């Protein structure tokens, strides 16, 4: 391995799970999240010489989000299976909280670009300006996408009708 | 639901606050290998683009020369050099036919009101694929290796990588080193499955890189209803049973390393088209 490869491998080891978490929030599926993260790192490798260590995470976030949006634009999501799983071990999500799957499912019903804005703003804690940089749009667009995305999320998650768990932190186990 | 933004933030952050399962197939070596391939493809594209520009200038100058403009100048430089990717010929090769898309819309004309530049089309949707989820790697990889051995007898064949891109798509990279140690050929095979009619799937895959619009395509009908499809993107095989195969790659002199010290005389070249056609024909015969 060259020095470039060593540096990249070190960064990959340190941040692959970070990338998978973001991807998981975006696509709601660990298999797809891994593919997404892998594709993002492949793109980063191609530009590794230009990636500065202090901005590497921001660059990773940008590449990952844009790769996700490209994937959705090209309709690759329809290749995702819904039948039996592949021939590899399935990892159980042992840390699941009761209402987390419902919120995750609701998040997946939000249109991809609005979902990306929500993930970046509320899960990644980025400012409006930072999200605009990642997505290559104006802050006004980010604000409007946030508003629409939250509306879509609320609709998808539904009111507290007795079947859907309430989301207020005080009512949840483990909070 | 959520009292304020902070509640929402906390709720969403808990969605990803889980133990990350161990990665399934991803190894850093695979990522680096794919990254290198991407760098190489980018370089090939840059070189091809530069050549296209030079040839375009040459053709333009020649055309102007024929019109008498600049007739007192020297003629343009020699003929164009064929470089990868091999362009799709205007007319189908012998045995091939032009396929007119019926499922995917044609690109809008630039003359249409409100259209600027290449237009985007409303993408079609393929129905979910049916049948076996996991592709029979043990079935198609030996066929690929066997066909390569026939084309390159005595050369060293090495499987560089085989993995599942996802549960519907498999990927295998095979390198063939010539016995005189002069040339390395890399064949990247992707195998997948599709849902719906063959024609719809073939048109769909051909439109993915053209904004969802149909692009020119030539078909070669194979026994059993399978087809080979040539587009500007390359050649793919589709079978009636819902499988598709694609082979891409390049051949490069082993002295070439793509670095700044290269003499520039010998870089990556396209794989022989007849080899790709033979490989895909064998794979398509698997059904």
Report on this structure.
The complex is a heterodimer of chains A (175) and B (287). Chain A has 175 residues and is mainly alpha-helical. Chain A folds into 2 domains: 1-79, Rna Polymerase Sigma Factor, Chain: A (Orthogonal Bundle), CATH 1.10.1740; 98-165, Arc Repressor Mutant, subunit A, CATH 1.10.10. Helix content of chain A is 62%, strand content 0%. Chain A contains 7 helices and no strands. In chain A, helix 1 packs antiparallel against helix 2 (30-46), helix 2 crosses helix 3 and helix 5 (112-123) crosses helix 7. Chain B has 287 residues and is of the alpha+beta class. In chain B, 30% of the residues lie in helices and 20% in strands. In chain B, strands 1-5-6-7-8-4-3-2 form an 8-stranded antiparallel β-sheet, sandwiched between helices. Chain B folds into 2 domains: 5-66; 97-284, no CATH class.
Keyword list:
heterodimer, A: 175 residues, mainly alpha, Rna Polymerase Sigma Factor, Chain: A, Arc Repressor Mutant, subunit A, 2 domains, 0% strand, disordered C terminus, B: 287 residues, alpha+beta, eight-stranded antiparallel beta sheet, 5 helices, 30% helix, 20% strand, globular
Number of domains of chain B: 2
CATH architecture of the largest domain in chain A: Orthogonal Bundle
| Count of extended strands of chain A | 0
Q: Please state the average pLDDT score of chain B.
A: 76
H/I helix tally of chain B: 5
Quickly count the helices of chain A.
Answer: 7
Shape of chain A: globular
Helix content class of chain A: 55-70%
The CATH topology of the largest domain in chain A corresponds to Rna Polymerase Sigma Factor, Chain: A
Q: In this structure, how is the largest beta sheet of chain A organized? A: none
Question: Over all CA atoms, what is the radius of gyration of chain B?
Answer: 23 Å
Distance between the termini of chain A: 46 Å
Order of strands across the biggest sheet of chain B?
A: 1-5-6-7-8-4-3-2
Structural class estimated from helices and strands of chain A:
mainly alpha
Q: Give the biggest beta sheet of chain B.
A: 8 strands, antiparallel
Order of helices and strands of chain A: HHHHHHH
Strand coverage percent of chain A: under 5%
Name the shape of chain B in a single word.
globular
- As residue ranges, the low-confidence spans of chain A are 76-97, 160-175
Secondary structure tally: strands of chain B? 8
